[in-house]
Design a protein that fits this description.
Shape: elongated
Distance between the termini: 99 Å
Largest sheet: 3 strands, antiparallel
Helix content: 40-55%
Order of helices and strands: EEEEEHEHEHHHHH
Mean pLDDT: 81
Strand content: 5-15%
Structural class: mainly alpha
Low-confidence stretches: none
Radius of gyration: 38 Å
Number of helices: 7
Strand order of the largest sheet: 1-2-3
Number of strands: 7
Length: 258
């Protein structure tokens, strides 16, 4: 299960090897859908809510991973767009220094240095003029690290770009690049710790349930061996009593002349 601009992407019959189908509606990745053929032959989808078990855990982890990937894509998109704006003097945000395309949902995996720069590195200039020692463009790029930016860049922030100073106006709720990066790392660490704590708690609960199950239905070898010895001694005592009674009767009947 995924999401496209036109709807949700579904793996038919749960087989990821089949071509994904696009259906109407918005569903998070990992959602399980039940299918039903209507009277007119169409396929209707109904979400199957699963909160527990292995599938529920996989869905929860899928949602968590999706959130962290979104933050990483936003981080990459903002840096790429801001650098492109500075590099092109505000002419483009999707190309220039980096090529990221129009779809920013997967920038972290698709970003690359402009092919034109790779083919001709001399196009990379540190300044806005040909004057010797002009490093204004490089300085503007360096200042982006402390600028308060949106992640991803909002239209207002993009519109605030000053092509003369090569700077953005600080966003009201913006963050610096280092602050947002630290936020991503911290959230990843918290998610990892929560997952470890959940696994530890569930493992402890499982061990307790298994112990209780064994205490009720399990067999203790020590107790069973003690019972065997006790029953064996009881059997021997009973056998001895029967032997004594048999000898007494034999003496009374056969040796007393009765």
């Amino acid at each position: 299960m995924g999401q496209s601009d036109t709807g949700a992407l579904v793996s038919k019959d749960g087989n990821a090897l089949n071509p994904a189908e696009t259906i109407t509606g918005s569903y998070p990745a990992g959602t399980v859908l039940l299918t039903k053929t209507t009277d007119n032959g169409d396929t209707a989808y109904t979400e199957l809510p699963i909160k527990e078990g292995a599938i529920g855990g996989l869905q929860a982890s899928s949602g968590e991973i999706g959130s962290r990937l979104t933050e990483l894509n936003n981080f990459t998109t903002t840096i790429a767009q801001a650098m492109n704006m500075v590099f092109t003097g505000g002419a483009s945000r999707t190309s220039g220094l980096f090529e990221i395309g129009q779809d920013d949902t997967g920038t972290a995996t698709t970003i690359r240095v402009s092919q034109a720069l790779l083919d001709n590195p001399s196009l990379v200039t540190g300044g806005t003029s040909n004057a010797a020692g002009d490093g204004s463009r490089a300085a503007a790029m360096a200042k982006l690290s402390s600028a308060k930016l949106d992640f991803p860049l909002s239209e207002n922030t993009i519109a605030s770009f000053d092509s003369e100073t090569l700077t953005f106006a600080n966003a009201a709720s913006g963050m610096s690049v280092s602050s947002y990066f630290n936020s991503i790392v911290t959230k990843n660490g918290i998610s990892k710790q929560q997952a470890d704590n959940t696994v530890s708690a569930q493992l402890s609960l499982l061990n307790q349930l298994e112990y209780k199950n064994q205490s009720v239905s399990g067999v203790s070898l020590n107790e069973e061996m003690s019972d065997v010895i006790r029953f064996q001694q009881g059997f021997q005592a009973n056998a001895r009593i029967l032997s004594v009674v048999s000898e007494m009767l034999d003496t009374l009947i056969n040796r007393t002349g009765v």
